[in-house]
Structures are given as C-alpha cells and as structure tokens.
UniProtKB/TrEMBL annotation:
The keyword Cytoplasm does not apply. Signal peptide: none annotated. It comes from the Bacteria. The keyword Transcription regulation does not apply. Pfam families: UvrD-helicase (PF00580). InterPro entries: DNA_helicase_UvrD/REP, HelD_bacillota, P-loop_NTPase, UvrD-like_ATP-bd. This is AAA family ATPase. PROSITE patterns: UVRD_HELICASE_ATP_BIND (PS51198). ATP binds at G232, V233, A234, G235, S236, G237, K238, T239. Keywords: ATP-binding, Helicase, Hydrolase, Nucleotide-binding. Residues 211-610 form the UvrD-like helicase ATP-binding domain. It comes from Halobacillus salinarum.
Length: 778
C-alpha cells in the first residue's frame, strides 16, 4: 500500500493516538506504583509496630494472632497489586513500540460495523469505555486467524456469534512507525509470513501471534477433553503452537491458574533455553519446564549412576549392528512397553504375599534389626493392606524401636566418651536447657548429673539422626534387590524377547554395578511408587510434552499417573523417532495406545524451511507426499560427493566458510555421533572458530556450531551441513529418521556431504530436487 495514501496516513494517525493514550496511562501508573511501593516499604518496616503483641492470656494470644494476620494480608494485597501494576506497565511499554499487528472490520448480523485492532494485549481508551486494542486471545480475535473477508463466526464462552467481515489488514509497526500495511486474504499475510520466515534465525524462539495460521489457531484455543495429540511434520509449528497455547490458557483462565500450574516437558535443556523467551515476549510468566531425565535423576541419583537418554542413543549409534535388532535394542523395546508393565504388576501382586526384601538396620557397626526380622514383621501385618500402608507401619515400628535403642545407648561407655569430646557450644546448650527446666519448675536435683545426661543424650541423638532420616525416607526397603529379583528367574506367560536370557543377565549385572540404564529407570520408579506410595501432583493443571514421540509408552503412562488432574497436550512427529524404543512405530502419538480416545490434530504444512528443502526432505519418509511446503523460495539443496576422508573434510570446510561469508548467522554441521563431531571439530572446527556442542546443558549459540543430530532436535539453523550422509553411515531403517531430522533443521540452505555412495534414504530422492556437486566443483 502506498505510504502517502490517505488510508496510510489515517492509520499512522491512529497509531499516534493510541501511543498517546499508552503514554498517559504509563504516566498515571508511575504515580500509583511509586505510592504503592512506598506503602509496601512502610508496611514492611513498621510491621511489628502496627501489631499488638500480647500473649499473657489465651484471649490475648488470639487477638495477637488476628492482628498479625490482618497486617500480613494488607501487605500481601499491596504486594499483589504492585506485581499486577508492574506486569501491566511492562505490557504497555511493549505496546508502545508496536501497539497492534492486525485489524478486521466486522458487523454482527444487522449490527453496526466495527473495527477490531489486534495486539499482544488489550488496551482501553482513556475513559475505559472502548477497546483500542483487543488481546489476540480474546474470543473475537479468533476471526482474525480463522477467516478471510466474508461471512464469519466465532464462539464466546456462552454462544456462537456470526456476521460479516469486510476488511482484514495486517501491519508492521516498529517504534511507533507504520512500516508496512497489507490487506490480506485467507491465510494471514503470505507476504508478511514470507518475510518473517525468510529472516535470520535467533538463538531464542520468537512468538508467532501476528501470523498464527488457521490450523494452528484451532489447537491453540482448544479447550475440551483430557488429552490433545498434535502430530505435526517437521517445522509445522508444534513448539510454537505449544507456547502460544500456554499463553492462551494463562489468559483464558487468568483467575483460576497461574504459570506455575503449567508444566512443559522439553527434550533437553538447550531446548528449554531456546523457548524461554516466548512467554515473556507475550507479557506472560514462563511455565515450569523440565526434562524427564532431570526428574528421574533427582529421584535416583543417590542410589545409581543414571544414564541419560543421549548417552543411551550415542551408545546405540556407535555400537549397533548393520542389520537386525541387537539384544540391547530388544531390551530397550521390551522394557519400554506394556508387557513389561504387566510383568511388574503381577510381580507387585506376588510381593503382597512374599518376596519383599529389606536392608539390615545397623548402628555403629552392629545390626539392630535384621532384614529377616523386618520381613517377618511385614508379612505378619494384615495382608489386605496395600504395600505402601504396610511399609508405613514398618517405618513406625522401626522408629519406635529406635527410641528404645536410644535409651539403651545413652547408658553405654561410648556415649560418655564422646560426650566428653563435645564442643563448647554444646555445653552451652546443655546449660541453657537445664536453666530452662529450672525456670519451668522441673526438678533438677544435681546440675552436673543433669548436664552429663543431657550431653550423652545429645551424642546418641546426633549419632542416630542419619539412621532415623534413612528410615523416614524408607531406605530400609531394598528396592534395588527387589527390582533385581524380577530378573532372577526365567519367566513364563509373558511375551519376552528372544534374547531374554541375555537381557536377564545384563539387567542384573547393571543393578549389581549400581548403574541404571534409561530403559530401567521408569519401571524402577513405577515399582518404587507402588511399593512405597507416592503423592500425586494435584497442582499442575496442564502438562505439555514436546517431541512426544521420544517418550516410551511406560514413561508416558508414568507421567500421566503423576499428574492425574492435568490436561495433556502431546506434540510430536513420528518421522523424527530416533530413539531405540520405537523407531517410528507405536509412538505415544498413536491414539490407539491411549485408554481414553484423545483429540487428534494434524499439522501438515511446514513453515521452517524453504519450499526446495521441504520438497527434498519429504521424499525421505514413507508418507512424505502428505507434507506440504509453505511457498517460500530458496536454493536447491546441494549434495557434495567426495572420495576420500581428506576430500570430505576439505569440502565441508570450504562450504562452511562459504555459508558464513554469505552472512548466515546460525550455521550448523550436524553429525550422527559425538565421536564424529569431535573429529570435525579437531580437523576444521578450531580453524573456523566453531563451537562444539556435545552436552545438552550447553547453551544454543550463534555462528558455526558442530553438534550431533539428536541434540539439534526442536531447534533450527539458517544453514545446515550434514556430515557424512554416505551409504555406510546411514543405512539402517532408523537412520532414515535421523537424516530426516537433520535435513529439516535447515531454514534457508541445506548441504549434504557423502563419502562415496549416498545413503539409500537419499538415493530415492528425485535428482531434480537437488544439485550434485563433486569436490572439484567446490
Ligand atoms: N504461524 C507462523 N508464523 C510464523 N512463523 C511460524 C509459524 N508457524 C511456525 N513458524 C516458524 O516455523 C519454525 C518452526 O516452528 P516450530 O519449531 O514450532 O516447529 P516444530 O513443528 O516444533 O518443528 P520440529 O518438529 O521440526 O522441531 C519456527 O521458526 C517458527 O517460528
């Protein structure tokens, strides 16, 4: 649209007017916040002066309590208001620079026409009567994402409203200046989306509220059901949808939930950092974020060396056979599924009558209670009681026993000896305690005798404290042995893998070494919770699982039982199933794996990569013809052929340099394993000042990075170079998923390097979809 047209000037005038309102509101806010702040400081400072403290009589105590409570409530009310003011003023600051990104004109059936301006938050006029800007999450704003001009309708919580939309317009406003204005059609501003998608990548994900597509909008706003599954192709905006959906839920249920009640399971910590800026950009606080591994580690770290999922994957990638399923893979697949859970459930039923194993309770090198005695006690208890209730009773029994032990130990010589070695402060404590007793009128016939008794008791109590703590934590249950017992004998009536004998042995070996591989972690936790009992988390109301195809059935089942009051949103892509537990089959994205039928959504259009890259990558997967590319033009991917190791590295070096010189800010060399990454880094990475990323805890960086494909999951780069996509490196069934994941990380350019023959998964791609290059041409 012409910048000098009357329409353009009118729109700029409106922007100016809105910014004036924002400025006035900000000025008014400043006054109110500073007086609120003073109030809070004053209240904190004089808290105790304004409270009447009197504890002489019971009535006075009640009065004192009421007075403290009143003062605390006043303070917290002020603090809350201050927090709210702070949040609103931050939003106003943001709106000041870019108040809105869209508009539509709409009239309800036979009603007057009204213009609706859509931005990241709402703004009322100075009289608080009319909306100058509607929040993108308001029900009416749905029209903007769902329709082009014509007959339209949207749902409010109460009813369906329909009418006519006569205009839909999109704006680019920066620092209060109108920089672009487009009247748009069905999809939201192809030209704007082109521009956004064609821009440079950042190390943090950006919000997409200005260009949410219709199919994405329906997921973002979906409210019903206890589970949503989003199967979306690579780059279709699953993570973006998850983040905007969280922002939507925080707005829609703003009086009932806060950000702490939403939990996102992310694939790794690097990804957590990558998405951490989206919600703050939208004026919301970040939800809780964790990886499943972090949770597992916290629970099991004290007892085991806990394998990470990436260690498991790296190990399988390095050691796997060229064909067939290895014993390790069989073990992983079996322990990830329903049959193994069935086995554990039956085992748990059996434990109700026999087989529980306990640790000896030892103190100062001597056994106080043997594991056998505990077992006898356990099985003497009412067998109709659940295992956790019986464990609880054993705990009480042991603690009671410990009290008796404490009394006996006080009389022993060692207590006297150690009491003599106590520090000065302990003596002071003893003295004060005795003084207190005298004050309370208790008999203290002889201070020195009293003091010695006190000190002996102190010594014994301290010595027993760790044991008492362990008992309270139920460490007397020998879980490791109980789990290991599961592998003691051959089992019948279960569909065990052919290599079960080898699996049994290796499982026991690992447990003896106190090493817990990924595939054993969830079953172990499940067994533990069913034996020891565990409180569920009732506060989390929404759980999001991104890269959901990477979770095993068992893991998902476990997570679901931890949050029984939460609605689940699972987002993933079975074409990217790179872990050994399923390799694309039966991922938790399959609706039939769930007891209750989930709501199913599909996202088939890929936004991340140019049309050329999507057309290339989609030929690598089975039902790739269903994948649609967003029409953003770029260069054809290049496949670089070399013959020798040296040539291969040389080609990679020249190409990486070229991409950096072309101005790409994020260039990634993706390899299959860490071993390969190290090799590339040593050969060419240092010279090119690349960063080697081999741990998920490392931050995502700009410039040239070298990392394994599995760590690049969920993330994108302007330019991607795939290392050694040759026949002998990517040839197994599941390598197809790895290669597909690697290629779909690229936004603008894709280069693939092969030593000798190309991987079979690339050979099937039509030759007109890429450019063949040989080392000489470089
Ligand atoms: N509606 C949209 N408007 C603007 N950008 C979008 C939109 N949808 C997706 N994108 C962009 O496309 C890219 C891919 O999105 P995202 O990472 O959410 O996809 P994904 O489905 O999670 O991908 P993957 O499974 O490959 O990790 C991001 O840069 C995102 O900003």
């Amino acid at each position: 649209m012409d910048q000098n047209s009357a329409e353009w000037l009118d729109e700029q005038k409106r922007v100016n007017k809105v910014i004036t309102v924002i400025n006035n509101k900000l000025a008014a806010f400043k006054g109110s916040t500073s007086s609120l702040k003073e109030d809070i400081i004053g209240l904190r400072k004089n808290f105790w002066e304004d409270v009447t403290v009197n504890i002489d009589e019971p009535d006075d105590v009640i009065e004192t309590y009421a007075s403290i409570k009143q003062q605390a409530e006043l303070l917290s009310e002020r603090e809350r208001s201050h927090g709210q003011f702070y949040k609103t003023s931050k939003l106003l600051q943001r709106l000041k620079s870019s108040p809105y990104f869209g508009r539509f004109d709409f009239s309800e059936e036979e009603g007057p026409e009204e213009s609706f301006y859509i931005g990241i938050g709402s703004l009322m006029d100075e009289n608080d009567e009319d909306f100058l800007i509607y929040d993108w999450r308001a029900p009416v704003a749905s029209l903007y994402y769902d329709y082009s001009p014509g007959h339209v309708s949207y749902r409010t919580p109460e009813e369906e409203i329909s009418g006519e939309m006569t205009l839909k317009r999109q704006y680019v406003i920066r620092e209060g200046n109108m920089e672009g204005m487009f009247n748009t059609g069905i999809t939201i501003g192809d030209s704007l989306l082109q521009k956004i998608l064609g821009s440079q990548a950042t190390t943090y994900m950006k919000s997409i509220v200005a260009t949410i597509q219709r199919e994405q909008n329906s997921i973002i706003r979906f409210e019903k059901g206890s589970m949503l599954i989003v199967q979306g192709v690579a780059g279709s905006g699953k993570t973006s949808v998850a983040m905007q959906r969280i922002a939507y839920l925080l707005y829609r249920h703003r009086n009932q939930i806060n950000a702490d009640q939403i939990l996102l399971f992310s694939p790794n910590q690097m990804f957590s950092t990558y998405v951490s800026s989206v919600l703050p950009e939208l004026g919301e606080e970040n939800m809780q974020q964790s990886t499943f591994h972090e949770y597992v580690k916290k629970r099991l770290d004290h007892e085991f060396t806990v394998e990470t999922p990436f260690e498991q994957l790296e190990d399988k990638l390095v050691s796997r056979k060229k064909e067939g399923v290895s014993t390790e893979e069989m073990m992983i697949q079996f322990k990830s599924g329903r049959e193994f859970k069935r086995l554990i459930d039956d085992y748990l039923s059996a434990l109700s009558h026999t087989g529980m194993l306990f640790r000896n309770i030892k103190f100062r090198g001597q056994t106080l209670i043997t594991s056998k005695e505990i077992t006898t006690y356990f099985y003497q208890l009412d067998s109709s009681l659940a295992l956790p209730n019986r464990v609880e009773l054993v705990k009480e029994w042991l603690l009671h026993h410990l009290q008796k032990v404490e009394k006996e130990e006080v009389e022993k010589d060692w207590a006297e000896e150690e009491a003599a070695l106590l520090r000065r402060e302990d003596y002071m404590e003893a003295y004060e305690s005795i003084q207190k007793k005298q004050f309370h009128g208790e008999e203290t016939f002889d201070d020195t005798v009293q003091e010695e008794r006190f000190l002996r008791a102190l010594v014994v109590e301290r010595k027993l404290a760790p044991l008492r703590r362990q008992i309270k934590r139920l460490r007397f249950v020998h879980l490791r042995k109980i789990y290991r017992q599961l592998f003691d004998e051959s089992i019948k009536n279960y569909e065990v893998p052919t290599e079960w004998e080898a699996i049994r042995q290796s499982s026991k070996e690992n447990l003896n070494q106190k090493y817990l591989p990924v595939e054993d972690q969830t079953p172990y936790l499940y067994l533990q919770d069913r034996i020891e009992g565990r409180k569920v988390n009732a506060s989390i109301k929404y759980v999001f699982m991104d890269e959901a195809q990477d979770y095993t059935w068992f893991q998902f089942h476990y997570i679901q039982s931890m949050f029984p009051y939460a609605q689940f949103t699972l987002l993933g892509d079975y074409h990217q199933s790179i872990f050994a537990h399923n390799y694309g089959e039966d991922t938790i994205l399959s609706p039939e794996l769930h007891e209750e039928p989930p709501e199913l959504f599909e996202l088939m259009r890929s936004y991340r990569s140019t049309k050329q890259i999507v057309e290339f990558a989609k030929e690598m997967v089975d039902d790739g013809d269903k994948i649609e590319a967003f029409n953003r033009q770029g260069h054809l991917p290049e496949v670089h052929y070399t013959h020798t190791e040296k040539e291969h590295m040389q080609a990679l070096r020249i190409c990486a340099k070229r991409r950096l010189n072309e101005g790409y800010q994020t260039v990634a060399i993706l390899c299959k394993t860490i071993e390969e990454c190290r090799q590339v880094y040593n050969d060419i990475g240092r010279e090119l000042q690349a960063s080697l990323i081999y741990k998920e805890t490392q931050p995502f960086q700009e410039g040239l990075v070298i990392l394994p494909i599995y760590l690049a999951k969920g993330i994108e780069f302007e330019s991607v170079l795939v290392f050694d996509a040759s026949d002998n490196n990517f040839n197994r069934k599941e390598d197809r998923f790895l290669l597909y994941t690697a290629c779909t990380r690229a936004m603008h350019v894709l280069d693939i390097f092969c030593k000798g023959r190309m991987s079979p998964f690339l050979r099937t791609i039509s030759e007109d979809l890429y450019i063949k290059k040989t080392a000489v041409q470089l």
